[in-house]
Design a protein that fits this description.
There is one protein chain. The strands form four sheets. The chain has a 15-stranded mixed β-sheet that branches. The chain has a three-stranded mixed β-sheet with strand order 20-19-22, covered by helices on one side. 28% of the residues lie in helices and 22% in strands. It is of the alpha/beta class and 574 residues long. The protein has two domains: 28-109 and 315-569, Zn peptidases (Aminopeptidase, 3-Layer(aba) Sandwich), CATH 3.40.630.10; 111-314, Glucose Oxidase, domain 1 (3-Layer(bba) Sandwich). The relative contact order is 0.20.
Length: 574
């Protein structure tokens, strides 16, 4: 579970971080907790036989979260030992090497840390404006270059910075952004709407509301710079989180062109800074914000210029994904993908006892344990019609980089990848009566999910805090944005034994006392019945995809529908 895709390091309290994204990201946390709930009702637990090995999951979780693995930080001296262990478990489960006869996929990354940041200065008005780094503006460059210098770049207010052809929406209509800097609002145009009505699903955030999208789109438009206006309510996190996330090292997948197709600078400014900039241009931020929420909005040149510079300390390294495969018996060139991230934070801020190892037992040693148990169960059941790929990815905590690299350089074509299941941080606790589909009703996978719940006499719960965009903050998103539908499921808080109050208390306890802390450790006292319930559901859903012949697609109007349709229309696709 990555603390933030704004923050790619362990930062602040998890409650705040979960409001974020991968450097401003974080996934919503668990719906059931750690050791607080009593064991699940034994009759219900025994109601349906399961092929999932609980002993195997316990063994792997305990080993991966042991102190001698030092918190599983990627690209450190302990990574080979972690990889050797995962490979040994994949072999024992009966998988075959999944990367052309090899178990590992190299993931080349680059770390860029800004140094000696200048003030952000704005010229073109009667009095130049100057804003200090950290408390008024923060930012970085995606480009692998020792020096960043944005000089006299014309500012253009582009509303929410959205280009959504399927919705008839283009905030960049009629403007050439080459050499210019986009000033962009956070979230998407109808974020203030109660419920999920509206082009952009109302209160539920879409990908267009994510800060990552806004920087990507600015680059596609040819902009030299991009500045997001921070506002606490639509962002769902305070400036302190933005500051912490963007004042340290940033991590990216290496590219052949050293990311020179990206903007020179991606930045954030405080809302009052944006108000001052707009006022210097003779504009009012509140008025322009209201205009930007209306279809047909056109970008507004501000007749001001932005200037900023900083140095970049650069370090390149390589981590690894682990890939195993169970070939299909009827359609081996069609693939179902199972994923979980193996990395965690390594050594971190010591607790009161001096413990500085963030073991990541829940986040995400038990996810890798579930991944391996699913592999073993499928091997024991015999090959499915389609091939099943089991992917333990790296660098999730640094911004989903392992899954992002796989999606950029897929070993198995994404056009032939039917869908899949992602597992991230399975909470110890009792069995529940309810589950939620993260992201809401986005694809045909929801129909399968609802059928599976009905079969188990379970209830569909609403996703907590849909405005925080949790769907876009875990490894399934790297595949989803390239058209591959992935299950991302949250266990509910309505415990069979204890009900919602006990479930919520356990959830809050983990969030406050263990998430991204040394205390996220394995315990022999864990109640595994909720995790087993999760993995039983994953097995059923994954096996249905693997034995089926359908190709799930995104709902009409979903932001990922067009890329899936294009993929399926290609030669040999879908």
């Amino acid at each position: 579970m990555n603390s933030s895709q704004l923050a790619k390091k362990p930062l602040l309290s998890c409650v705040v971080l979960l409001a974020l994204a991968a450097p401003l990201s974080a996934k919503p946390l668990f719906k059931a907790g750690t050791a607080l709930p009593p064991p699940a009702d034994t009759l219900e637990a025994a109601a349906a036989p399961t092929p999932i090995s609980l002993d195997l999951m316990k063994q792997i979780t305990k080993r991966l979260s042991a102190d001698d693995f030092e918190g599983r930080a990627p690209s450190t001296a302990t990574e080979p030992k972690v990889l050797d262990y995962i490979v040994s478990q994949f072999k024992a489960a009966g998988l075959q090497p999944g990367n052309k006869g090899q178990w590992l996929q190299d993931v080349p990354t680059v770390e860029i840390e800004g140094k000696n940041q200048s003030p952000l200065t704005i010229t073109g008005s009667k009095t130049p404006l100057s804003f200090s780094f950290g408390d008024q503006w923060v930012g970085a460059s995606y480009r692998v270059t020792p020096k960043t210098k944005l000089k006299d770049s014309p500012l253009v207010f582009v509303g929410y910075g959205v280009v959504a052809p399927e919705l008839g929406w283009n905030d960049y209509a009629g403007v050439d952004m080459k050499g210019k800097t986009a000033v962009i609002l956070v979230n998407d145009p109808d974020y203030a709407t109660d419920g999920e009505q509206g082009l952009f699903k109302g209160r539920r955030m879409t990908y267009y509301g994510r800060w990552t999208y806004k920087f990507e789109e600015a680059a596609r438009q040819g902009a030299a710079g991009a500045i997001i206006v921070h506002d606490t309510f639509p962002a769902a996190y305070g400036w302190n989180v933005v500051n912490s996330s963007w004042t340290g090292a940033q991590y990216y997948v290496q590219t052949k062109n050293d990311a020179m197709d990206q903007t020179q600078v991606n930045a954030w400014v405080q809302k009052d800074v944006a108000e001052k900039i707009l006022a210097a241009a003779g504009k009012d931020l509140a008025t322009l914000t209201r205009a930007a929420q209306t279809k047909g909005f056109k970008p507004v040149p501000l007749n001001l210029k932005a200037n900023v510079s900083f140095d970049n300390a650069i370090r390149k390294s390589t981590s690894h994904n682990v890939v195993g495969i169970l070939p299909g018996k009827n359609r081996p060139d069609e693939y179902v993908l199972y994923s979980a991230h193996w990395d965690h934070l390594g050594r971190c801020t010591p607790d009161k006892t001096g413990d500085d190892i963030c073991n990541g037992a829940v986040d995400n040693a038990d996810g890798v344990a579930a991944l391996t148990a699913l592999a073993k169960a499928n091997v024991q059941a015999g090959p499915a019609a389609r091939s099943q790929v089991f992917l333990a990815v790296t660098l999730e905590e640094s911004g989903l980089l392992g899954s992002e690299y796989y999606a950029q350089k897929p070993i198995y074509p994404l056009a032939k990848t039917v869908g899949g299941v992602n597992m991230d941080a399975l909470a110890p606790g009792g069995r529940v009566r309810d589950y939620a589909m993260t992201g809401g009703d986005k694809s045909d996978l929801t129909d399968m999910f609802r059928t599976a719940l009905k079969t188990r006499s379970l209830v569909e719960a609403s996703e907590n805090d849909p405005e925080k965009g949790g769907y876009y903050r875990s490894d399934h998103f790297s595949m989803a944005k390239r058209g591959v539908p992935m299950f991302a499921i949250d266990r509910g808080i309505d415990l069979v034994v204890g009900g919602k109050a006990v479930g919520q208390a356990a959830n809050d306890d983990y969030t406050t006392n263990r998430y991204h802390q040394p205390s996220d450790e394995y315990s022999e006292s864990w109640d595994w019945s909720g995790i087993q319930q999760d993995v039983e559901l994953y097995y059923s859903l994954g096996r249905e995809l693997a034995d089926g012949s359908t190709w799930p697609n995104w709902r009409a109007g979903d932001e990922f529908r067009a890329v899936r349709d294009k993929s399926c229309a290609g030669e040999g696709g879908c």
